[in-house]
Amino acid sequence: MPRMATMPREEWKTFGSVFDRFTEKQVQSLISKGVIDGLIGPLSMGKEATVFTAQAGEKTVIVKIYRLSTCDFNKMYGFIRTDPRFPKLNRQRRKVVFAWAQREFRNLLKAREAGARVPTPITHLFNVLVMDLVGGESAAQKLKIALPTHPEEFISDLIAQMRKLYKAGLVHGDLSPFNILNHDEKPVIIDMSQSTTLDDPNAKEYLARDIKNIAAFATKVGVALTVEELEKKVKA
Ligand SMILES: Nc1ncnc2c1ncn2[C@@H]1O[C@H](COP(=O)(O)OP(=O)(O)O)[C@@H](O)[C@H]1O
Ligand SMILES: [Mg+2]
């Protein structure tokens, strides 16, 4: 990928609700440490986080910044409260947002180790997460937009990815065509901040929802698959 021009620090402020003083310092710190050379530009502005592309030597990487202020804090707290890996978390806004970034890092790492196709996490620093960019010349598109050319193969690969997560004791928790990228006709699962372990009391409910979403998508692209069939395959 060609080297891209990075944004001057003054321009970060344009993304008002992302860059408070604290967050600015963390991004600056990633630059001083040599993790990234600078931010290139925003890729997506979601409910909890803004995703940027960044230059890192010859590579383009992803910097996902969880907003400290305008996030749905109650929702975030609700989702992480039951995760057995974060037993001591209380209702402190900042700590919850930091834990959220840390949790996505840990989930991506665990998924990677299990051999699932997810972006490789690089590092995390408070509310900032750095990971590999999925794509070639530019970021791969969401499955929602980039429908598979060979649905049968794509869905069977996606089921294999789901099975790997399940075997590793992970439940994605927000699995849908919005959080799966179509990279050269192969599924790459992203957005694992909500992912939890199978011993989370809510894990069953999240898994059931993930399975329902993917069964519906499969049917939509012409691959007949019931919720029961998919569940059996994921847990096989
Ligand atoms: N590693 C990645 N490689 C390429 N694109 C990515 C990557 N991570 C995120 N994106 C892009 O940014 C969007 C938002 O990222 P996501 O992790 O889903 O955050 P959100 O919580 O805002 O949904 C994704 O839909 C995708 O288009
Ligand atoms: Mg998402």
Account of the protein in words:
With 236 residues, the chain is of the alpha+beta class. It has 2 domains: 9-132, Phosphorylase Kinase, domain 1, CATH 3.30.200.20; 141-235, Transferase(Phosphotransferase) domain 1 (Transferase(Phosphotransferase), domain 1). It has helices at residues 9-12, 21-32, 73-81, 93-113, 151-167, 203-220, 227-235; strands at residues 38-45, 49-56, 59-66, 121-125, 128-132, 141-142, 170-171, 180-183, 186-189, 196-197. A hairpin with a 2-residue loop joins strand 8 and strand 9 (186-189). Helix 3 crosses helix 4 and helix 5 (151-167) packs across helix 7 (227-235). The longest helix has 21 residues, at 93-113. The chain is globular and about 50 Å long. It binds adenosine-5'-diphosphate and magnesium ion. The site of magnesium ion (MG) has 4 residues, from loops.
Helix-strand layout with pairing:
Layout: H1 9-12, H2 21-32, E1 38-45, E2 49-56, E3 59-66, H3 73-81, H4 93-113, E4 121-125, E5 128-132, E6 141-142, H5 151-167, E7 170-171, E8 180-183, E9 186-189, E10 196-197, H6 203-220, H7 227-235
Antiparallel strand pairs: 1-2, 2-3, 3-5, 4-5, 6-8, 7-10, 8-9
